[in-house]
Write a structure and sequence with these properties.
The strands form two sheets. A six-stranded parallel sheet has the order 1-5-4-6-7-8, with helices on both faces. Strands 2-3 form a two-stranded antiparallel ribbon. By secondary structure, it is α/β, with parallel strands linked by helices. Helix content is 43%, strand content 15%. The longest helix is centred in the C-terminal third of the chain and has 22 residues.
Length: 250
């Protein structure tokens, strides 16, 4: 399996979904990310070969998000690995870094005065052009990370187009994973993430989840899991997510 390649160099403007044997990270420039936002739910930005909403619905595309913005985050590694595994198995994928979508802590008064942050709308647009979402979330005090909860909350507040923010959760399939230095692999934190998605946002979340314990030594030099059986289980979860997304949107 090919090792994960890093994000495109500054100046890379496109989000290309044509299979190149690696996951396609989001462009790092504001201009590039703005192109995705303008595309919204109607078009994946590939100038040479536009992908319509109808084509996307019948061809699963998975979005991999980490609930941590830390540079060396174990969960960021897990999300990147998931995108790599998906691509290696013919499933088009995107890795998104929440560090590229900074937002203030949710505040109803701020929302009333200034509206929903533009980065919440951009993240929503990205979710809209994927039919399945894998979230790798760290466990913070036996719960969800503040960064991830804030992002999920702000996206849900986008209300134009018939409540697009809430709708993106009820019309996609989600899968969860966690990597932790401890022995439980972040399991307790995923209980909180699942509760937010299912009970709070009405999302369909697969029962299968990925747990990587003792994460400090769990990844090899190529970004794969040293435990080959664990990597195979991860691949199985990704394949189930892709099949479920296809059944929902196909």
């Amino acid at each position: 399996m090919q090792a994960y390649q890093s994000d495109p160099a500054p100046g890379d403007e496109g989000l290309k979904f044509a299979s190149l044997g690696r996951p396609h990270a989001l462009p790092r420039t504001d201009e590039g990310r703005d192109r995705i936002y303008r595309a919204g739910a109607a078009l994946v930005m590939n100038d040479a070969n536009p992908v319509t909403m109808e084509q996307r619905m019948s061809d699963p595309r998975l979005l991999f998000i980490s609930g941590s913005a830390r540079t060396d985050s174990f969960n960021k590694r897990l999300a990147k690995l998931g995108a790599m595994i998906a691509e290696a198995n013919g499933i088009k994928s995107t890795f998104a870094d929440l560090a590229d979508y900074p937002m203030p802590v949710y505040d109803g008064d701020l929302e009333a005065a200034e509206g929903v942050p533009v980065n919440a709308r951009k993240l929503l647009a990205l979710m809209q052009v994927h039919s399945g979402v894998f979230i790798a979330s760290p466990e913070y005090n036996a719960s969800i990370s503040a960064l991830l909860k804030n992002a999920l909350d702000w996206v849900s507040r986008v209300s134009e187009d018939g409540g697009a923010g809430k709708a993106v959760y009820t019309t996609r399939v989600f899968a969860l994973g966690a990597a932790s230095p401890g022995g439980t692999g972040g399991m307790r934190g995923l209980v909180a993430v699942r509760n937010v998605l299912e009970m709070g946002l009405g999302a369909l979340v697969l029962p299968d989840q990925v747990l990587v314990a003792r994460a400090a030594t769990a990844f090899d030099d190529h970004g794969h899991l040293a435990d080959k059986e664990g990597q195979e289980r991860f691949k199985t979860v990704i394949q189930k997510l892709a099949r479920a997304a296809h059944l929902l949107h196909g």
